[in-house]
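Repro:
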Amino acid sequence: MHAGPFSSHQFERKSDRPLHITAIRPKGGDTPTVDDTEFFRAHCDAVFRVFANTLSNHAEVDDMIQRTFERFFAADRGRIERPAAYLLRIAHNLLREHWRSKARVLEGEDVSELAVADLSPGASTLMGRDENAKLLIDGLRTLRLSEQAALELHYWGGLKYREIAEVLEVPEGTVGRLISSGKKALRTHIEARHAGAPPALEDAFAGAQPGSGA
């Protein structure tokens, strides 16, 4: 397999298209500044995690990361109070746009209430290192997109409920309910398939932590 700039022990790029800051132009088409480059490097993993377990195609993951940063750099950043949260909001909005346009979603249906496993049955782009990681990764894809997003932002992104609420544009109380229902469904999924006593969810998430290797 081809290993590019976005590779790790859990993820290897299969796209030959380079993905780096010089391919992403800020507003006006200017050459990226030092600050742009540092921002890209600092937050690339966070954006990668949004798409790594919600898309089934490595080239699509690359493309969505690229589009997220393009949209961010095209914005009026002088009016953005919290750039990291704004960037993740862009990524999640793009993800919902992607599934609304690609999947057979009924008119008026909220794509956030659907699961990746229903929208696009197939393997994740993430590769679990062991049974626990594989079960977690597969289980997350059976949750509603909103539940999956909340859990991944909390456990993999380290975000607090109020920060997740800002990213997903929902009330903080809704985040609590999404995490609670998501954990219950995920625990049921893992327990039904685990040969023995399953690990605590916190340990399972830690063992399946994705990284771009950037």
